[in-house]
Fold:
Amino acid sequence: MAVMAKYCPEVAITVVDMNRQRIEQWGSDVLPVFEPGLDDVVKSVRGRNLFFSTEVDKAIAESDMIFLSVNTPTKTYGVGAGRAADLSFVENCARRIAELSTSDKIIVEKSTVPVRTAESIRHILNAKNDRGIHFQVLSNPEFMAEGTAVQDLEKPDRVLIGYEDGPEGQKAAAKLVELYAHWVPRELILTTRVWSSELSKLTANAFLAQRISSINALSALCEATGADVDEVAYAIGKDSRIGPKFLKSSVGFGGSCFQKDILNLVYLCEYFGLPEVAHYWMQVVDMNNFQKNRFVQRIVKNMFNTIANKKIAIFGFAFKKDTNDTRETPAIDVCNGLLTERANLAIYDPKVPASQVFADLNLSPNDAAVAVVDDPYKAAQGAHAIVILTEWDCFKTLDYEKIYASMAKPAFCFDGRNVLPLRAMQELGFHSFAIGKV
Structure:
């Protein structure tokens, strides 16, 4: 919405939320989300044509177009628990829009939703509509990535807009196309049927996650045979039919989308009686879990089969660099695995606060086994091992000779992101290990 406000100065955009604290943060000098470039964009348009408010009802009544951007987490209860998407927030929004609308409106799905959610939204809007108001529901899934979100929005690979059959649906889609056309070339704005648009978001994330799990599966074979996973990825990435993107092996993928969307896709396949297809996609998640477990086991095995009471420095807790997002971060499973082996952890991440780390690990800030520190050198002091779990650029330029001197010996380094030169670390004296390398 901030980027849209930047390029559409004649359009008034109001972001509403019932969480007053969150809205106040968006109006402050310290935004609740860390994203490179976001501060500048928000501050350039805030108060001009981008506004933040808790007056949800007023915003609904006055709007012409409403973007539904609410959580669609994986269900934790009932039918489809652990796989299906929980659409309760979407339904609650649709009901509220139906109750408060006094004029025709275009409803735009921004949340990642299962196929045919637009149909459910339309049923709710029409069922509660006794005032002759016309609603059109569009699907406009987001393909930006955390860490590069502003760049992805300003120069997208494509913008996808799905509309319902009929002239009214096409007319509604044209209005949304007009907004994006302020800065996106028209040939990059794709229009499809609404069901195709909804499914495209799920499958895009599934395909990307599949590539990560595929290269991670090969990383285990590389370690067993002596091949180098980066060299393998480079070689196959040169094939124009495959390409180099998302062939970076690591401890595993995380974030709010990949696992949630794959599990949703698995549930849809099961629901429509396609167990073989469901099993195929479930293997992507299983391989991701295998990679995280394998990483922990490799640490334990190489540290003489015990890490009990040993201090391990964790470098990075966010699921990827340039974000403070920890949803589904591999660091949670890796840290829990190390804690199960009774290790002591000193965790450093440049953007993730201590409160979030303890919440994700379900630990009290007073837990003696975990310390969250504000300096990587402090985390490594007296540690038996360094474990890199996020590919922050700052980790590449640390003084590892100094770090090595401060650690217990023998000193170990387990690079879960392949950000450090393996041989150079070994020459410093580290027993150093990387993903898919020996």
In short: The chain has 17 helices and 13 strands. The mean pLDDT is 95. The first strand starts at residue 13 and ends at 16. Residues 194-225 form the longest helix (32 residues).
